[in-house]
Amino acid sequence: MNVNHTNELLKNYPLGIRILFSSNLEKWQNSKKLLPTAPLLPTLDKNLPQEKFSSTLPINLGEILNACSTGLMINDYYKTNQKFNDNIRTLLVETIINYIITKQISMSVSLANSIADQIADIFPTEIKDTYFLKYDTNKNPKGKLYAKYYNSMRTLKSSGLISCNTHTKPPTKPLNRKHNFHFEPENDVQYIIEQIKHDNNCSFPDLEYNWKATTQFRLKNIQTLTSTNDILNNWSNYKLPMGYRLVDIDFTTMYPNCSNLISVFEEKSEKIINLLDEKIKDTSSRRLLKSLNESTTDISQNGKNTIIFYLLHAIFIPTSKKVTRDHTGKKNQTKYSIKDSQNSFIIFKNSVCEIEEYINNRYNEKSPIQPFIMPQT
User: Fold this and answer.
1) Are residues 110 and 12 in the same domain?
2) Is residue 92 part of a domain?
3) Bridge partners of 321?
4) How far apart are CA 124 and CA 42, in angstroms?
5) By the 8 A CB rule, do 313 and 345 touch?
6) Torsion angle of the four alpha carbons 63, 68, 69, 75, in this order, in degrees rounded to the nearest 10
7) Tens-digit pLDDT profile for the chain (377 aa)?
8) Which pTM was predicted?
């Protein structure tokens, strides 16, 4: 019996049962000095290219996919469709993690990075960051590979299939930044830095001038900070109504050869619409997307862009929760919906008077107006 047979035999069983059975079967075969009745790597013309990957790699993705029926079906699906949907991505990740756990291989940053590179190489339309993403700080990596591995290990341990004292060591190496920039802080800019941080009467044109004069110093400082919240607290000017222009200054310094997003947005927006069509599941958002796709010349480019940004909230689903207490001291937890997220970005009003009334109410409540867009319907 080989890997193909066990996967087919136990296809209706949970992942943990399949992993445990495969592991024990392999141990039993080794103890009896039995050889598999069929080669683990099929010699069919369905095989994935393997010559691109060195045998020194910790895991050869081509061999993993060729060694099981699920992997071969994933390969066939890609040959036919030239892209994956979310269900196929889930199957691909499950197949890889099944192999890793069965072979008792420890997950690490370098291993996940290697696998993600191979996925992007074998399936060119796939994005590496979907499977593995390193942050610029020492936060834990993200991506489907890490999430599936640790969720599977947690399930196996809680069910008693794996002893709790058998665990993989977390990576001890600090994470490298995705882009390694070297900044040389400007000389004699401490006075300008103090003005940026503490002069509340400085006009915005003067702030922009000072911002450009201290770009290297500030970006060097930002490299030492550990979270977005720390950055915004240390450089609070980013939160100003025109703060996006300060972001543009820093972005131009870091990526001087990149095109201005506004100049290419109309071209890129078609790709965003295709992504929205693939990802959106929210009913009301899908109706709005359908209306956008069926419209012809009766919608302006600004209107189209507004709808695109509005619909992006249906992809970046809000996960934050707010905890409040009522007059009795009882805790109430509010989980924000897609609609809440959309309403925090765009508010629709029927007249200019309603818009002005809304702004005045926000002002009286000492609530920020930005970054709201308030179109008149």
Assistant:
1) yes
2) yes
3) 335
4) 23
5) yes
6) -20
7) 566 666 667 766 676 677 777 777 777 777 655 444 433 333 334 444 443 333 345 689 988 998 888 889 999 999 999 999 999 999 999 999 999 988 888 888 888 889 999 999 999 999 998 998 876 655 667 889 988 888 888 788 777 777 655 444 444 333 345 556 666 777 778 888 888 888 878 899 999 999 999 999 999 889 888 888 889 999 999 999 899 899 999 998 888 888 777 778 888 888 899 999 999 988 999 999 998 888 766 788 888 888 898 999 998 877 777 777 777 878 888 888 888 888 888 888 888 888 888 888 888 888 777 656 666 55
8) 0.41
Using alpha carbons, list the distances in angstroms from residue 172 to 137, 140, 286, 322.
14, 11, 44, 34
Q: 331 φ, ψ to 5°?
A: -75, 135
Task: Indicate the residue among 254, 276, 305 that finishes a domain.
Answer: 254
Extract the runs of DSSP E, i.e. beta strands, from the chain: 321-325, 331-335
Domain termination residue (choose one: 221, 254, 287): 254
CA distance 2 to 10: 12
> Domain for residue 151, yes or no?
yes
Task: Give the structural domain span for 231.
Answer: 190-254
Does 27 share its domain with 124?
A: yes
User: What is the domain count for the chain?
Assistant: 2
- Phi, psi dihedral angles at 181 (to 5 degrees): -105, 145
